[in-house]
Amino acid sequence: MKAFATKGTRGTKKYDASFSFKVSRFTFDGIRLPADGATLRATTLSLSSALVPTSLVHNSSYPIMLPITHLWTRLSSVKWEDAWVERLCFAGEQNLVIKKFPASRSIKLDLYTDATNGKKLIKAFGGTLRPFDAKGWQPPASKMIDPLRISGVLRIYRDKALFAKERNAGKGLPLLVPSGMAFGTGDHATTTRCLQLLVKASAPLLASGKPWSLLDLGCGSGILALAAETLGAGKVLGCDFDEACVRISKENAKLNKLTASRFIKADVLKWKANEMGGAYDIVTANLYSTILTVAAPMIIKAIKPSGTLILSGILAVEEIAILKTFSKLHHIKTLKRGKWAAVMMRKG
Q1: Which of 115, 196, 238, 320 is the most buried (most CB within 10 A)?
Q2: Per-residue confidence at 140, pLDDT binned at 50, 70, 90?
Q3: Who contacts 94 (Cβ-Cβ below 8 Å, separation ≥6)?
Q4: What per-residue confidence (pLDDT) applies to 99?
């Protein structure tokens, strides 16, 4: 779930009796990964309420994609965990990691940011700030299940060595998507459910023997686009607002020797359907619900007659509102996991 954002309502509010914050309409969900005996929480953001220090708010309808050059760190009480996630959401999704340790009431906040905001954080909240080499960063070893199996059809690997060893063995089509800074290795509920719906939607297209196509809006790591090509799509286009995601998606395509998938930088709030190479048999959009709402007319135009739309990044409580937004389409299926929902619809 990556790359696009829209403007929320703002006002001034006091929080915790000591800081003044701007109120933006955001919320979050956590992904917990065990590492080094701690629980890491990487935040992903969608719409609801967040508290951002006034000195750190940018005057823009879109988040400014700042280069990550520094790491800001601070210890806090575990009871303030949710408040910190909301306070720091301005920095962008997946830039905040919260470490929780067994038998401890403290948490450690790691925020990957730029020098300017890092200094503002020090002034507002204290903590420590040090330079960080984003290009040389490697993700921590993960204890997630590898491979992740999707509907008995796909095997998603994060480990390159294991992928190389098992690529030609076992049941299901193999796909390598290494863990990294781009969202999407298949573990998060939104991505997993999208993959499951993609397998379902692609089955009749593959059985027909006719060429089929897929457009992925907010491609992140490229996982949905590359899964589509693995499943037999002959034309695949993935787009993302974040240049890093576009680069990583291209790298993942090379790792899997997939040549039909193309990745470009684009903003879903500004693009036009005819600029995306026409209409597609399947369109996937793992984006925030408000982005889906604003971009709905263009998304619908990008779907071929009788084509399929797969949406995720939606909170389960937002499902009805999203279905109303896309009421021109026929609702086929909804998959839910925890707070999240993924929806499949058909055009015509």
Answers
A1: 238
A2: low
A3: 42, 43, 44, 181, 183
A4: 84
Residue 212 contacts residue 281 (beta carbons within 8 Å): yes
pLDDT surpasses 90 at 1: no
pLDDT over 50 at 238, yes or no:
yes
Nearest Cα to 175, choosing from 190, 189, 186? Answer: 186
Rounded-to-integer distance, Cα 222 and Cα 185, Å: 9
Instruction: Calculate mean pLDDT across residues 239-265.
Output: 93
- How many CB atoms are closer than 10 A to CB 160? 11
Concatenate the DSSP letters of all residues of 186-230 into one string. Answer: S-SHHHHHHHHHHHHHHHHHHHHTS--EEEEES-TTSHHHHHHHH
From its phi and psi, is residue 103 left (phi > 0), alpha (psi between -120 and 50) or beta? left
Give the residues across from 309 on adjacent strands: 283, 345
| Cα three-residue angle 75-79-80, rounded to 5 degrees | 60
Give the single-character DSSP code of 48.
S
State the Cα–Cα distance between residues 1 and 283, nearest whole angstrom: 15
Q: Give per-residue pLDDT as tens, 259-296.
A: 999 999 999 888 876 778 889 999 999 888 889 999 99
Residue ranges per structural domain of the chain: 12-131, 148-347
264 close to 247: Cβ distance less than 8 angstroms: no
Q: Which of residues 21 and 91 earns the better pLDDT score?
A: 91
pLDDT, residue 89, reads 74
DSSP assignment of 266-309 equals --TTT--GGGGTS-EEEEEEE--HHHHHHHHHHHHHTEEEEEEE
Q: Domain 148-347 belongs to what architecture?
A: 3-Layer(aba) Sandwich (3.40)
- Please tell me the distance from the alpha carbon of residue 313 to that of residue 1, in angstroms, as a whole number: 6
